[in-house]
Amino acid sequence: MSEFKAIIQKYNLQEKVDEITDYIFSKQEIDPKEFATLFAMDAKDAITFLHTIHRGLKFKEEYLDKQDDN
């Protein structure tokens, strides 16, 4: 199991998807410590979780969104 999936299960984040999405897309910059506090997570897990989301969004922007333009 990936570390990302393990974090989702560890903190039951699948039940907080709407809250997490709202938080992420309402911020210019995300503070991992604030995120960890809001979602009752260890700071290291919050950093890993947010980094994985960032990589996924970057991939989408660089590769998938460009395909939509063609």
Q: If you had to describe this structure to a student in words, what would you say it looks like?
A:
By secondary structure, the chain is an all-alpha fold. The protein has one domain. The protein is built from four helices and no strands. It has helices spanning about 5-10, 15-25, 30-40, 45-70. The model has no long low-confidence stretch (mean pLDDT about 90).
Instruction: Work out the radius of gyration.
Output: 13 Å
Task: Please bin the fraction of helical residues.
Answer: over 70%
Shape: globular
Uncertain stretches: none
Secondary-structure-derived class: mainly alpha
H/E topology pattern: HHHH
Strand count: 0
What would you say about this model in short?
The chain is mainly α. The protein contains four helices and no strands. It has one domain (3-69).
